[in-house]
Amino acid sequence: MGEEEGGDDLNLVTLLAIIILMIYTVAAPIFEKIHFHYMHESGLCMIIGVIISLVAVFFDPHTNFTKSINFSGDVFFTFVLPPIIFSAGYNLRRASFFKYFVYILSFGVLGTIMSFLWVAPMTILFNYLNCFYLPVAQNKNSNIDQGSNNYSDIIANTTNLIISSFVQNITNDETNMQEGTTKTIVKFTTAEILLFASVISATDTIAALTFIHEDSEPKLFAILFGEGVVNDAVCIVLYRILREFTLSGKEFTSGTPVTMFGQFLGMAFSSFLTGLVMGCLCSLMLKWFLKKQIFLNRTQEISIILFFAFISYTLAEEMGLSPIVTLLFSGIFMSNYAFYNLSFQAREESSVVSRMLSNIAEAFVFTYLGLTLISSIQESFCLSFIVIELFVVCCGRIFAIFGLSWILTKFCVKS
Questions:
Q1: DSSP-based three-state secondary structure for 211
Q2: If you write DSSP's letter for every residue of 230-282 in order, what string do you get?
Q3: Which residues, other chains included, contact 93 with Cβ-Cβ below 8 Å and sequence gap of 6+?
Q4: Cβ neighbours, 10 Å, residue 399
Q5: For 184-217, where are the alpha helices, taking DSSP H only?
Q6: Which of 20, 111, 9 is nearest to 67 (CA)?
Q7: What does pTM read for this prediction?
Q8: Could you give the 3-state DSSP secondary structure of residue 134?
Q9: CB 110 within 8 A of CB 404
Q10: Do 276 and 282 contact (CB within 8 A), yes or no?
Q11: What is the pLDDT of residues 166-223, one digit of tens each?
């Protein structure tokens, strides 16, 4: 009977998720029709998910969508993230991307690194000043795994990251609780702060793109879109390097930043080269079929494109490189070379299929965040951490954007 009830809960959650996915699909054209440009469809999905979870908790306080959906990091990295990254590269506006490549590279790479160099020390400072705390009652009811060091789940579980997923090491020495106090001081390790800073430094540009029309501001739109693609890749490479360093147990010395920077350049270049090779192999394979007059139907052509995309992603993962960077540039090179070895129908349909898979994956992520937000807050909610880090991240992005803009205007470009 318990299993049947659990199955019923899963079916209900699946039904709600599909309805929200449908709303996500039709929201963009409706917003465009009514000239509503104050919210992205992803934000609408999250709001609807939060409302549904609030209603469910109101009628049944024990409702937990997090346990019902059971969304793991392996599912995210294997099935959700690759379609999003591949679509971004395959459907990239190449002319605008390479035309404004200096801007995109500056804001996407240097801007992310500058933001990281600001967020990390500021978070360490606030952590030293004991600015992060939890209510005592909440700490007693929270189910925090104090021995967990599984950093691979940090990016996948974005909600838990924001609402104190790093609260893992609250010990008696760190919890300065005295009789009559109303808060519990939370102390983070330096490794946790560095990992958090690497993840949060790559801010998304979806909100900014909502207020910009490509027809009226093509240059700004291209720069923001390109930056949003590049800074995610930089964030992942930076995260992997820091994670490997923290797990190695090595001591931080004066030469460590130089070593990390060398590893960053090496991993980025190796991942780029792997994506280039896989994109060229896909192009040569399709060209060989045409030369030998082996005619493939549209389904087979599109399947080959998708197979090569997932091969490049998993190959980079096995080689210890950044699969995000590899898949991104693999998609870019496929769209520039393999695309023209496809039939006329397959060219159009490959773009449609990649966009469709990307939209479904994105909608699933935002829907999951909305549905599980209340359940995550019920388990643990560090408001001081959210407010302080929001202020720190905003300041970091302001310094990075305006600083880089001044440098580009002063030395590189006229406007």
A1: coil
A2: HHHHHHHHHHHHHHHHHHHTPPP-TTHHHHHHHHHHHHHHHHHHHHHHHHHHH
A3: 222, 225
A4: 15
A5: 190-200, 206-210
A6: 9
A7: 0.75
A8: strand
A9: yes
A10: no
A11: 344 433 334 444 444 456 787 888 888 888 888 888 776 555 666 677 677 778 888 8
